[in-house]
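Example: tRNA dimethylallyltransferase.
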Amino acid sequence: MDDKWLISIVGPTGIGKTALAIQLAQQFKTEIISADSRQFFKEMSIGTAVPSKVELETIKHHFIQNISIHDEYSVGDFERDAIALLHTLFKEKDIVIMVGGSGLYIDAITKGLDKFPEINPSIRTHLNKVIQDQGISVLQEQLADLDPVYFNKVDTENPHRLIRALEICLGTGKPFTSFLNQSKEQRNFKTISIGIAAERTIIYDRINQRVDKMIDAGLVDEVISLESYKSLNALQTVGYRELFKYLEGDWTLDFAISEIKKNSRRFAKRQLTWFKKNEQTIWVDYQAVIQTVVEKVKQKI
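Written out as C-alpha cells, the predicted fold is:
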C-alpha cells in the first residue's frame, strides 16, 4: 500500500475541520475517519459538535457515535480498529481522509503508539474511584510524585491522561515516560497533514460563537439527561463538566457558559502546540478555497 495516502486534517476546535474534510472527501471520492475522541460517544452530540445529519449523509464517516459512554475504549483500541478499517478502505480507494482535534489519536494512526505492558485492570478501577470520591487533584499530586517529567508536559486537567499514566507507573513501578519513544510499527501508507490556521483572536471568537450556538441548540438539556452518569470518564470533558457544576448549584448558568468558553480556548491553545510540533504539516488559512487545498495535496502526492 505504499501508493496509498491518508490526508489528516488538523487544527484547533471550531476552526472548520469537518467542512474541509467533507469537501476534500468529495473531491477525491472517498470516506472520512474521525479521530475526535469526544465524538465517539453516541450519548453526546451537541457538546462534542458531532457532524450534522446532512454532513453525515453527504460523506460516509467512521467512528462517529460508535460506542457508549459506558464502554471502555482506549486510544489503543482506536489504533487497532482504525488501522484495520484503513486496510479495508485502501483496497478500493487511493486516498482516505482523517479529521479530528485529538492529537494523540491522530498520532496513533499516523505514527503508531508507544507499547506498554499489560496492567492489572483493578488499578484503573481504583484510580477511577479515587477521582470520583476525592477529585482530580489527588491524581495530579500522585503523578507529579511518580513521574514529574510527564506531569510537566501532560494536560493535567484530562483525567484520561492522568489515569493512563498512573496505571503504568503503579503497575510497573517505573515512570510512564520510560516507555515512550520506543520503536514503533511502520505504516504502509503515506500521510499528508493539512493544518487549518487563523489568527488567535479569530479562533477564540469562533469558539465563543460555537459555545453560544451549543447552548441555543439545547446543550443544557443534553447535560441534564446525562447527569446521573457524570462520574464516567467520557463526561469529564469541556462543555459537560462545567454544566454539571451549574446543575449542582455551585455556579450560575452564565458563569458556567463563560467557563466553557475559557476552557475551550485553553484547549485550542494546547491543540495548536501539539499540532505545530509536526514540521511536515501544510498550513492553510481557514478561509482558503477548496481548490487551493486540493492543489497542495496533489503537489505533495
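The mean pLDDT is 94.
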